[in-house]
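## retry 2 of 3
previous attempt timed out at serialization; input unchanged, resubmitting
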Amino acid sequence: MRRALLFLALALCACDRRPAPAGAGKGLVILNPVGDRPTYFDLGRVPRGAKAEHVFRIRNDDPRPVTVKDLLASCGCAVPRISYRAADGALVPGNPDNRETVITLPPGAVADLAVSIDTERVEVMNIDKLAQVRVRSDSKTTPYVTLELHLVVERLMRAVPAAIELGQTPQSAGKSGRTDVAVDVPGCRARVIGVESVEGPFTATVDEAEVAGVATWIVVANARPGIPLGPVAGKVVLSVTGADGTGVGRPFSVTVTAQIAPDVVLRPPVLLFGSFERGKPAKIEAQLVALVPGERVRVRSATVTGTPESAAREIAAEVTPIDPGEDGRAQSWMVVLRSSEKLRDSTFSGELTLQIDHPRVPSIRAVFSGATH
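## retry succeeded, writing output
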């Protein structure tokens, strides 16, 4: 019985040895293989932030042009590019954004397929990473070729949290944030020397301390007062020694972001009722917040206007201080918009105006909208 099964398996294997299509050649062939795995290359250990790239030289050994349909990377940190030199020496670049044809290689053409690894975007440091790029083409012999790049992205230091995110920052006062930096490799003797530079509208300091018996560098970034409203970003660059604790190593960077805002804000800034059943009341809750620590405000009035006017008349605003002081002022206020059951309009919109006794933000306006069904 076993012998019969063995003969059957051999027969099936023999039947599966289909001849190559007529006129087919060797397809896409790697001309610069390293070792016995032509589609694999080891980039080794690469410092975080350094450039990492390998170029696979690929020749079209088919007797007809081969169209590369797409280059699909396994992760966002890998970026493939392909090009070849025409017979007249002109460079013919591929178009990776074309969803049907990236590039067409004439018979015998040699293409450079470069795969760059953005080490800043690699999520996990100090461990093995394998990035892949799948080359899909209309070659009869090699319709799929998968290229592989191995590397270990080294990072001597790490920051917790990884970035200093200041969030909403009052324009008049600015804001500070902190992260703790320590070595990321057991046995590493690297040390932070100081702040090398600061990018963006920030200042920064670094101080050494010992946290749970581990040398730690406390980085504090400050968004200065008076920055124009809107999002801002930058980074703090730290000077670091080598892994043995001597010399000068690769700088370590910490990203800093902030959203410069008025000193008093409404959260959320836009009020959405959504869709609710006609004839039933609905409400939206928001919070008015004074961002400068220690500041307290009073909401003097809340006014609702809108279209159609009939809808605006059926929407009322309520404001309530949260943990107010003896003078009635509070750092935050609860704001509620309520619609009555008499509201019949299928769609409506309007504006809520809050008058505040704040010297720099006398009023806040927020739009609202909704629909009934």
